[in-house]
Write a structure and sequence with these properties.
Blueprint lengths: L3 H11 L2 H57 L1 H12 L20
Helix pairs in contact: 2-3
Length: 106
Amino acid sequence: MLSFNQKRQLRRVATSPIMQGVLLLVCIFMAHSAYGRYAIARDMAERRIAAEREVAELEGRRAALKEQVQYITSERGIEAEMRRQFDIAREGERVVIILDEPVAAE
C-alpha cells in the first residue's frame, strides 16, 4: 500500500499540466484514428452497395442473353435471323422492301 506522501506525489503528477497535455494529445490521436477507420468503413459500405447493384444488373443481362441464345439456337430463331439479316425468302414467298416516301424540299 502506498504511503500518504507517495499518494500525494502521484496525485500531483497526474494533475500536472504537462500530464494533462499528454493525455489530451493521446485522446486527440485516438479520436483521429477512430474517425479514419470510420471513414474507411463508410467508403467500403458504399463500394459494397455499388458492387451488389452491378452484380444484380449483370445477372439480369445474363438472363436476357441466355434467353436470346436459346431463341437464336432454335430453328425458328435461325430462320428469323436469316430473314432479318439477308432478306431471304422461302420458295413461293416474295421479299418486299418498303421505302419511305421522299420528303419534298420546301
